[in-house]
Amino acid sequence: MKVVEKLEAIKNQELSGKDNVEDFISVIEKKNESINAFLEVDGDNALNQAEKIDKKIKNGEKVGALSGLVFAIKANINVEDFVISAASKTLENYYGSYNATVIDNILNEDGIILGITNMDEFAAGSSTESSYFGSTDNPAATGRIPGGSSGGSAAAVASLMCDIALGSDTGGSIRNPSSHCGVFGFKPTYGAVSRQGLLDLSMSLDQIGPLGADSSAIAIGLNSLVTNDPKDCTSLKWNSSDFLKPLENNPEELIEGKKIAVVKEFSDVTDDKINGLVDKSLEKIEDLGGEIINLKFDYVDLCLPTYYLINYVEFFSATRKYDGRKYGYKIEDVCGEEVLRRIEMGSYISQQEFSGKYYKRALQARSLIRTEINKLLDGVDLIASPTVPKLPHKIGDKLEPMEMYAYDVLTVIANLAGIPAASMKAGDVNGIPVGLQLQAKPKEDLKILEAMIALESVE
Questions:
Q1: Where would I find the Amidase domain in this sequence (predicted)?
Q2: Which residue of 277, 373, 420, 447 is most buried, as measured by CB atoms within 10 A?
Q3: CATH code for 3-248?
Q4: Is the overall model pTM greater than 0.85, yes or no?
Q5: Which residues are catalytic?
Q6: CATH class for the domain made up of 251-302+359-457
């Protein structure tokens, strides 16, 4: 049952919200010990929420747009009374004292918060192996990483532990695990979703977004998440479309006449087997009436160093509040290897004598990348590419930092440019899921969703 169908079933009293929660709790009890997708589950509170929603429906009262749907939340998004640790010992005893705006949006629409998911420590990673609470397994490819940093959220969706999960995406942290776990993941236009209540990794790049097992879950999530928030200085004032509307269209109507760009330089850095599956998705687009346009992008090699230089400096700045005085421990005293590496690099680059040499040049490079990506998108509707250029490694394999960073080469572009991007399953290589990435102009998130809906219908 698709998530949109489940939502209607709950509203029509064909399925109770309570039963929906109980079903997920049962799956979590069976699977979570081995998968480690959830760090914390509050089943009692979720059942209480569900019973209140069921009562409102039974009494004919107005219910919210998410009534009875169950959400999992990444451990760097504040939820009141849950441990919001960012998967770090630094904050292992920090309880959220307030709700992030996105959490209030969910609760106000009668969505149900079931628990908190695992992640790379402070979102600094691409595998969910750096979590202080242990790595997360990939339900779609057991023994391999689920991707990161939102690996717990992707694994929770892939193992049917929730209807919708929230993740954060700084350089691909929603799309990367969505690709590896074979689910849908969406990074909205920068500023479309409030960042208030998110623990920063890199504030000029971070974006919260939904993950789901089908495109309707993404549409439902976006409808509640995309709102203006006066408490967030990056929040857009944008009268976005109804993201559920495309579900009413025929697939051909959603793709026909659209121009989809393909960039050779993106496939050049990608494994051939992954490219083969992406090519099959492009054939489906053509069968639906889309037109494939071949374009060039000469700055692929510039994207990763630009992203990481900005990330190091902004992460170093964000972590200065974790000094052990107000809560938790001093971050440098207890954090893992990758977090410490980024702090030390950020500290070094931030020194006055090096700022002009590194950080300011990275900002200049970012402006160039943004300009060039917007040029690519001028005259086309979407860019289609692999999400991740290589298959996920086995849990425990030792990768050098640059090998780990290489997972992000095709996803950091959207964050640097502030454009919307998403990943959906393109197929499998030897049973391992592979993602198709779709990118669009700022505020044209709907075009990506339309393409996802259309492609899903012809799988």
A1: 20-448
A2: 420
A3: 3.90.1300.10
A4: yes
A5: 74, 149, 173
A6: alpha beta
